[in-house]
Design goal:
single chain; 208 residues; alpha+beta; FAS1 domain; seven-stranded mixed beta sheet; globular
Length: 208
Amino acid sequence: MPKPFAFLLISMFILFTFSCKNEAQDAQKTVPEKTAVDTVKKPPVKRAPKKDLTPEDIAVIQSVMARIMAEPHLKKYASYLVTAGMGTMLSEDKGPFTVFAPSSVALESLTAEKKKFYATPDNNPKLEAMLKSYIVSGKMDKETLLQTIDKSGRAKLKTLAGTTLTATKSGEDIVISDGKGAKANVVKGSIEGSNGVVYVVDGLLGAN
């Protein structure tokens, strides 16, 4: 059974944090004056053996979900993915996926009513559909995306929500539109993951 992505990522983070902390403490230790207590030998501390990471573990750590969680501009989108229960899909499924993730600034532009709506557990299916409208099946890295646009003027991209995004160029910028009048510029990407790529876009797309 595959390990939950959140447990694995958090475990790795905690292990790394405590390791760094212990190293810093060791470096700061000074040699105390000898006392009677110093002569008492302490039993050796048993440490748990280190476990080698499996290829599956490494794939999860390098997944598109991990890339989204590590990207400072995508904290809100990552939070929504976890709330909707989509983290496992983007971390453990082979995909591949291409994610045009809206920045936290873009998501903060949602109305108060929409934010409350997506925060309600009963509305998780609607939240999932909204998030999937930014995820395309298949890997479309920046080089491939630009080649497609240069060849035909645009690239049609079918999302997991069943909608279609269109990628075009405006000068040197890549513009993503949803066919309903909404457009967003790619401001970062493509960010490579083990099961796809991630782009950061500066606007909202689809019926949000």
